[in-house]
Amino acid sequence: MGYKSFVSLNIAVIGEGVVSENIARSLAMAGHYIFMGLRDEQLVTNSLLGEFENIEACTVGNAACEADIIIMAIPVEEVRDVSYLLGDVRKKVIIGATGNVYPKPAEFVHAVNVMRSITGCPHVVKSFNCAGYENLFSDSFAKRGADMFVAGDSKKAKEMVKLLAKDMGFANCYDFGDNDSVPLLEDLAKCWYNLAITQKLGQNISFKLFRD
After folding, report:
1. Secondary structure, 3-state, 149-179
2. Does residue 205 sit within a domain?
3. Which one of 17, 45, 48, 164 has the lowest number of neighbouring Cβ atoms within 10 Å?
4. What CATH code is carried by the domain that includes residue 61?
5. Number of domains composing the chain
6. 1 belongs to a structural domain
7. pTM of the entire structure?
8. Is residue 3 part of a domain?
9. What are the pLDDT digits (tens) for 86-100?
């Protein structure tokens, strides 16, 4: 990736799928210690654990307890149930990487609000939901300098997201606004999905902001 943080953090990546595993892999490569939070500890890819000594599989509650930062990379339908499993995370940073691509019941429209309401944590933001994570280990991805975005009310959480985005190979992480701007970031994710899947451009695409 070319960039490694001088700060090593304990990070919980909650989720059981390609996105969560690729986020975990990219952050582990940057030197962070990753706790993969799983409802079924057998669902993590064994090769991932074998490849990295700084990735550990555990329950959702244990992962959240050990971590400074929690990345929720789960389907939007699971946000409510999984949020209850986190335990006391009021002093931690929670990053909602859930993408609301399909129409959902009203209670799931703003996953960030659901997480904040259930956990009581004020440091909940939205990010890492509008890129193809297949690209994170591609040299061309890093050379082209794709950008990431973050939205939410917590300045503390936004600064942590910007640090992690740099570690993951993104050129910049731009502030998209406060919690009221989260739906705009969701729309950006829908634009990515439309281009990548519906328009069949492929998932190896990302957004880049150019300024003159």
Report:
1. EEEECCHHHHHHHHHHHHHCCCCEEEEEECH
2. no
3. 17
4. 3.40.50.720
5. 1
6. no
7. 0.89
8. no
9. 999 999 999 999 866
Give the Cα separation of 126 and 144 in Å (integer). Answer: 23
Any idea how long the chain is?
A: 212
Q: What is the pLDDT of residues 104-160, one digit of tens each?
A: 555 445 788 999 999 999 999 999 988 777 666 565 566 678 899 999 999 999 999
